[in-house]
Predict the 3D structure of the following.
Amino acid sequence: MKAITYRVYGGADVLEYGEVPMPKLGPDAVLVKVRAASVNPVDWKIQAGYLDGVLDAVFPVIPGWDVAGVVEQVGVGVTEFAVGDEVMGYVREDMVGRGTFAEYVAAPVRTLARKPAALSFEQAAGLPLAGLTAHQALTQALAVREGETVLVHAAAGGVGSLAVQIAVALGAKVIGTASERNHDFLRGLGAEPVAYGEGLAERVRALAPEGVDAVLDLVGGDALTVSPALLAEGGRLASIADGAVLGLGGRYVFVRPDTAGLTELADLADKGLLTVEVAATFPLERTAEAQRLNAEGHTRGKIVVTVA
């Protein structure tokens, strides 16, 4: 099969496109014919070696954790899916080796759910990692409740745009930071936008004079530093980008595969409460270009790689 691989740590220039062996199918896995896979910052950070201290890599590595496709074969112990089922998944295992930037991936059933009918394969590929990150942060780390006010930093990005929609579905009022060019986009998702930069705290307080009940930080640095002062009494803080949140009394979130969570996201999509903004698509052989665009950090929504 065709796949993207890398044999050493590095930037997009270490990616290769070519033939690799078909993946072996374990008893609790299904073979997915990949239709689309999305690019996430964690992909190029792992590839650069930033997570080498916590994740073993088996070279050559096939990168990618997000997938949407069709079940081609099921393992002998699998009852959850059948050949021909359309699925999506956050296919993260305990080591890095066999990822989703390939024509096929052997995915453990614990990483999969049925693809929502309301989303295309490209949209569905952009949902698992980003959607689960937002969902776990909002429902578990922050325990957002109906009627609360939530501040989402970097609200127009892949995780942020999904977090806005999930928080709105939970019944929360949402304030989202974003560049001014994305303010109408955020309003369309149900958030009240505020601009980044100097004066951010004052702009947020103008919308929430008593403070916000929860802050979801997706960028770290200055955004995280200003956040504690914006919290109402008893407010909660979580970050996916900066471990310094722990020293501020908040929660650090690293997303886990979760079939139940994926199923909830699919249900929201099929009810018309959640959609995925696809910023750009690239064919599999141009994954390096997709990765470079993602690394620039200014994309609205998700960047997706498609497989013919």
